[in-house]
Design brief:
By secondary structure, the chain is an alpha+beta fold. 26% of the residues lie in helices and 25% in strands. The chain has helices at 2-10, 19-29, 89-92, 137-140, 169-182, 203-212, 257-269, 286-289, 317-335; strands spanning 34-37, 43-47, 57-62, 67-73, 79-84, 96-99, 102-106, 130-131, 149-152, 157-159, 163-166, 190-195, 216-224, 244-246, 274-276, 297-305, 313-316. The chain has an 8-stranded mixed beta sheet with strand order 1-2-12-3-13-16-14-15, with helices on both faces. A 6-stranded antiparallel beta sheet has the order 5-4-9-6-7-8, with no helix packed on it. Strands 10-11-17 form a 3-stranded antiparallel beta sheet. Helix 1 crosses helix 5, helix 5 crosses helix 9 (317-335) and helix 7 crosses helix 9.
């Protein structure tokens, strides 16, 4: 699974431009499941188990990552841009980016040139530019078009005590877990959606769930971990190496209490670590899935991730197996109508 995760993180797929990710996933899962790409770009897969499921269960993960879109080219060759998805301005400053095969750096005024007041505040995001080394607008236009998308230029690195650093952990990790589940034995039929445009409004999940019509859904995601120095316990949200994260509420979903409890009980029964997300901000595809048609019983299982929506997301390998194993055990109960 780690090789798959590395491959996925090193591919580029900003919201609305997930084609490379979809192609990779289809090539990986085609020998194990029937799959197709829907009109919006979602990859939908159906894997036959040894028995038919009493209830239809959907595993979901989104393919897109946060990034930038080019909005203009200035006379001096600098590029203006807007963010795709939620990115803090502090994360952007002086970062390397890729626009297709073109490399650039997000401009920032050097500290030696800052006034006293400027040193105390973050620059206005709207005033930031991308420097691709062009000498003029005409020079830049040879390589860049308005509407091109940019991603953070960041390597995949394994370091420290079972840690992984990469861009796009959110949610290429979920995609890697779903691929691994598809390649493994399943006792019941299962459905899978690798969805587009989660970062800009859960858009792919709306059409994918409408198409599959599941009774249950398991959304697998990455969620913010703020377990760093000087952060109060109640503000750390969740912690690395403490297992899968289950939410009771976020910005798009108020999760069913019975299913929330079943998830925790399942984790305990199979001896896997699980933790409750200590916060209600954010949201994920569960928000769209659970409202589909007459409603879908939905749970969100996440991996804790430091520095989310940045070039340097950090996770712990040991949490990955917890998420996968709990998801599969929960699926078996859902599919057999035992929850």
């Amino acid at each position: 699974m780690m090789n798959t995760l590395k491959d996925l993180c090193l591919l580029d797929g900003v919201s609305g431009n997930e084609g490379k990710i979809a192609e990779y996933i289809v090539n990986k899962i085609a020998p194990y499941a029937e799959c197709y790409i829907d009109p919006l770009g979602n990859v939908i897969a159906h894997k036959k188990g040894t028995s038919s499921a009493k209830k239809r269960v959907l595993f979901d993960a989104h393919m897109d990552e946060v990034g930038l879109i080019i909005t203009g080219i200035k006379d001096d060759g600098m590029l203006t841009f807007s963010c795709i998805g939620g990115i803090n301005t502090e994360v952007l400053l002086a970062k390397r980016v890729k626009i297709g095969d073109v490399y650039g750096v997000i401009c920032v005024k050097p500290i030696h040139m800052l006034s006293g007041d400027e040193k105390k505040k973050v620059p206005d995001k709207e005033g930031l530019l991308i420097d691709i080394g062009a000498s003029s607008k005409a020079d830049a236009e040879q390589y860049i078009e308005i509407g091109d998308t940019a991603v953070f230029d960041s390597d995949y690195v394994e370091f420290g005590d079972n840690k992984i650093k990469a861009k796009a952990i959110d949610d290429r990790l979920g995609c890697a877990i779903l691929i691994d589940i598809i390649k493994s034995y399943l006792p019941f039929d299962a459905w899978f959606s690798f969805t587009v445009q989660e970062e800009v409004g859960l858009r792919g999940a709306k059409t994918a769930a409408f198409s599959v019509e599941p009774d249950y859904a398991i959304a697998i995601e990455a969620t913010t971990a703020c377990d760093i120095i000087d952060t109060p316990e109640n503000k750390s949200v969740c912690k690395l190496n403490e297992g899968a994260v289950v939410s009771f509420m976020d910005g798009s979903t108020l999760y069913e209490k019975a299913l929330f409890n079943s998830t925790i009980n399942t984790a305990n029964n199979i001896g896997k670590k699980i933790q409750v997300k200590r916060g209600t901000s954010g949201g994920n595809n569960a928000g769209a899935i659970h409202l589909t048609k007459s409603g879908v019983r939905t749970v969100s299982l996440s991996i804790p991730c430091r520095y989310l929506h940045s070039p340097e997301c950090v996770i712990d390998k040991r949490d990955i197996e917890s998420v996968k194993d709990i998801a599969v055990a929960l699926f078996e109960q859902m599919a057999d109508d035992k929850i």
